[in-house]
Design goal:
The complex is a heterodimer of chains A (402) and B (109). Chain A is an alpha/beta fold. Chain A is 23% helix and 29% strand. Chain A has 3 domains: 175 residues, FAD/NAD(P)-binding domain, CATH 3.50.50.60; 111 residues, FAD/NAD(P)-binding domain (3-Layer(bba) Sandwich), CATH 3.50.50; 76 residues, 2-Layer Sandwich (Enolase-like, domain 1). Chain A has 10 helices and 26 strands. Chain A has a 5-stranded parallel sheet with strand order 3-2-1-7-19. In chain A, strands 9-16-10-11-12 form a 5-stranded parallel sheet. In chain A, strands 22-23-26-25-24 form a 5-stranded antiparallel sheet. Chain A is globular, with a radius of gyration of 22 Å. Chain B is of the alpha+beta class and 109 residues long. Chain B has a single domain, classed as Beta-grasp domain (Ubiquitin-like (UB roll)). Helix content of chain B is 17%, strand content 23%. In chain B, strands 2-1-5-3-4 form a 5-stranded mixed sheet. Chain B is globular. The N and C termini of chain B lie far apart (37 Å). Classes of the chains: A alpha/beta (402), B alpha+beta (109). The interface between A and B is medium-sized, with 25 and 20 residues. Bound molecules: flavin-adenine dinucleotide (FAD) and FE2/S2 (inorganic) cluster. Flavin-adenine dinucleotide binds next to helix 1, helix 8 and strand 22 of chain A. FE2/S2 (inorganic) cluster binds next to loops of chain B.
């Protein structure tokens, strides 16, 4: 009898695993369980074109409806996996069903971090993670409404950009002293702050939100000791890996299910991939990534490992963010101690910041600059020494620097 | 009713897939929706990954809108690029493209 595989979590990583398992020749039955109402879909458009209304829902789905059946994958939606019984190798579902497995993939993703200040439970306070979240927000996301965005990270800023475009009155509250502080260089933060201000977005930096209030729904936000009126609140303050199943099953977890470079957990029958994991990155220390690239590449490596072939996961992380007509593309992982090299002039809204470490490119941030991004990514992967002066010189074509 | 038009994808192996793609959808989405293998589309159409390359014969290429700067530069870095290459997520289906024939590369990586 052929082995059976169960996947918990029907998202980007789970979907990729199904595709890769079949591609790598696995012929046994696959069952994928997801707690959302939908088959796997892409989340990036949720805070971009889907919220803007220029991207219809059917386009969010990663595969055609018949894909799963055609590929021998039983897809169970609207159902939470409640427990993993490792000794018996059984996944228990919330409806009492029991799914036996020979191999199990955890692809449970991450959930939004919630605020817990006074008034945080009021109606009108939204988070953005799922299709259902956007649909709830859409109903009130109307021109003229005042929206308070809590958190100046990618998601908050993408929503701010869409809001400004759609004629909402947008205020962003950020506790740190710059935007996207966890993810990008100060140069990028400053550039994006300018762009948002030009679009009419009000930015309140170093301003932590203290409370919400209102009569039956949110009507005001208190931040930095002042009170601001708001019709809608959107909170984007990061995510927490969904690791409870693994924790309860006694698998190693440290803010993420711990896996090795083959996506293996400590149990030889269990692998994990995507936002829910913490893995040893290509630079040799444990990292947790929240991006499509990691979901796809780690799921590919998990699938390979599950069919008994092992390839070290060492792909360069990459990410993008769309705000206004600006495409931000990032490859590699920056550190605050990196030496920064600017290529191009931010005033032209087309430039890149290279992060150099030991004379090599460790990361690149490119704004409307695809060549810088693509070559930069290659330089990060190859780890070859580079000439900083040449990188900064736009009279030298990027292509010749790869 | 959304208007749909015909697209023929030809895999590197020569295998043909004739599919219908809704007006306004990208050619990439048409392939993915119909289980046509050979287009990875890692970024889901954001013009950020260059893993959705197709080859368009010159007579059809003339009917396609020109490449944006972004498509042009991303394409530069895809494997086995020729003068017939396009990123299929950047081309929207229209009546003018009814019957278009697209060849798929051996690999997107
Ligand atoms: C609004 C938004 C915008 C984003 N934009 C970008 C972007 O521009 N670029 C980028 O690279 N990344 C972006 N991301 C991040 C990217 O979407 C994630 O990194 C990616 O979806 C991770 O894939 P995953 O499979 O690990 O998790 P998910 O896609 O979240 O899938 C996990 C699924 O498992 C389900 N699940 C969890 N626990 C259980 C259980 N016990 N039983 C059953 N099901 C369970 C979850 O509900 C979920 O459906 C964005 C994310 C969001 C929310
Ligand atoms: S799908 Fe990523 S560039 Fe086309």
């Amino acid at each position: 009898m052929s082995e059976s595989i169960v996947i918990i979590g029907a998202g980007q990583a789970g979907c990729q695993a199904v595709e890769s398992l079949r591609k790598e020749g696995f012929t046994g039955p696959i069952t994928m369980v997801g707690d959302e109402a939908y088959p796997p879909y892409q989340r990036p458009p949720l805070s971009k074109a889907y919220l803007l209304g220029t991207f219809e829902r059917p386009r969010l789905f990663l595969k055609a409806d018949n894909y799963y059946a055609e590929n021998g994958c039983a897809l169970i939606v609207n159902t939470t996996a409640k427990a993993i019984h490792r000794a018996e190798r059984i996944v228990e579902l919330q409806d009492g069903r029991k799914l036996p497995y020979d191999k199990l993939l955890l692809a449970t993703g991450a959930r939004v971090r919630k605020l817990n200040c006074p008034g945080a439970g009021l109606p009108g306070i939204h988070y953005l993670k799922t299709i259902a979240d956007v649909d709830g927000l859409q109903a009130v996301f109307q021109p003229g409404k005042r929206i308070a965005v809590v958190g100046g990270g990618y998601i908050g800023l993408e929503v701010a950009a869409v809001g400004a475009k759609r004629g909402l009155d947008v205020t962003v509250f950020e506790a740190m002293d710059r935007l996207m502080a966890r993810a990008v260089s100060p140069q990028l933060s400053a550039f994006y702050a300018d762009e948002h201000k030009k679009a009419g977005v009000k930015l309140m930096l170093q301003t932590g939100v203290e409370a919400f209030g209102g009569d039956g729904k949110v009507e005001w936000v208190r931040a930095g000791g002042l009170t601001y009126d708001a019709d809608i609140v959107l909170v984007g303050i990061g995510v927490i890996p969904c690791e409870e199943l693994a924790v309860h099953a006694g698998l190693g977890c440290e803010d993420g299910i711990v896996v090795d470079q083959n996506a293996r957990t400590g149990d030889p029958h269990i692998w994990a991939a995507g936002d829910c994991t913490r893995h040893v990155g290509r630079e040799g220390h444990a990292i947790r990534l929240e991006c499509v690239q990691n979901a796809i590449d780690q799921a590919k490596h998990a699938a390979l490992a599950m069919v008994g072939r092992h390839k070290t996961y060492s792909e360069v992380p990459w990410f993008w963010s769309d705000q206004y007509d600006l495409k931000l593309q990032i490859a590699g992982l920056a550190r605050p101690t990196d030496t920064l090299v600017l290529r191009g002039d931010p005033a032209n809204r087309k430039f890149a910041v290279f992060h150099l470490r030991d004379g090599k490119v460790a990361a690149v941030e490119a704004v409307n600059a695809a060549p810088e991004y693509m070559i930069g990514k290659k330089l990060v992967a190859e780890g070859k020494p580079v000439d900083a002066a040449k990188l900064a010189d736009t009279s030298i074509p990027m292509k010749t620097l790869g | 009713m959304v208007q749909k038009y015909r697209v023929i994808f030809i895999e590197d192996s020569g295998k043909e897939h004739a599919v219908e793609v809704a007006e306004g959808w990208s050619l990439m989405e048409g392939a993915v929706k119909h289980l046509v293998p050979g287009i990875d589309a890692d970024c889901g159409g954001a013009c950020a990954c260059a893993t959705c390359q197709v080859y368009v014969a010159p007579d059809w290429m003339a009917k396609l809108p020109p490449k944006s700067d972004m498509e042009e530069t991303m394409l530069d870095f895809a494997p086995d690029v020729t003068s017939e290459s396009r990123l299929s997520c950047q081309v929207r289906m229209t009546a003018a493209l009814d019957g278009i024939i697209l060849k798929l590369p051996k690999s997107q990586h």
